[in-house]
Write a structure and sequence with these properties.
The chain has helices at residues 34-37, 61-77, 130-143, and strands at residues 8-13, 17-26, 39-48, 51-60, 81-85, 91-97, 102-110, 118-126. The protein has 152 residues and is α+β, with helices and mostly antiparallel strands.
Length: 152
């Protein structure tokens, strides 16, 4: 499941029903600009029911930052929603939580944006799975921070 030594976040039960995003490398390591330098090649794996999927996709560093912000707020308030929306549509995650800490994750995974196949699935978690997911997002953000020449 996990790539050895690579930062990743997991939603769900790690061995039975889960969605995992593992950041492998910068897609354009020679680029230090915002537009090209922030693409990260990721391996996305899902196991839901009898379905298993594995897709390599390029996602953006700022997508992880925004999802962590929303997920952290949802976890702290026990209210609201969090959304991981990718620029090219490889992966969409819509999460919501109720006041008892019950979390619903609605996910859509594509094998080729625009022309490929789509796997849509929903799974339920409880709040205790959010903190490890947030910690995983922090490892990705730490390994692949957003490159922005305006901050140098």
């Amino acid at each position: 499941m996990l790539e050895e030594g690579k930062p990743a976040f997991i939603l769900g039960y790690s061995s039975t029903e889960y969605l995992q995003v593992c950041a492998l490398r910068r897609a354009h390591p020679e680029c230090t600009d915002y537009w090209d330098g922030n693409w990260i090649t990721c391996r996305i794996e899902a196991a839901v029911g009898r379905f298993k999927a594995r897709v390599d996709a390029d996602l953006r560093s700022e997508e992880f930052v925004e999802f962590r912000r929303q997920l952290t707020a949802m976890n702290q308030r026990l209210a609201g929603q969090a959304r991981f929306a990718t620029l090219e549509g490889w992966l969409d995650i819509d999460m919501s939580i109720d006041h008892l800490g019950h979390v619903t994750a609605r996910c859509k995974l594509l094998d080729e944006p625009g022309v490929g196949n789509r796997l849509e699935f929903t799974f339920n978690l409880d709040q205790t799975y959010l903190s490890p997911a947030i910690a995983g997002l922090e490892t990705i953000i730490g390994a692949f921070p957003v490159l922005d020449p305006r901050t140098k």
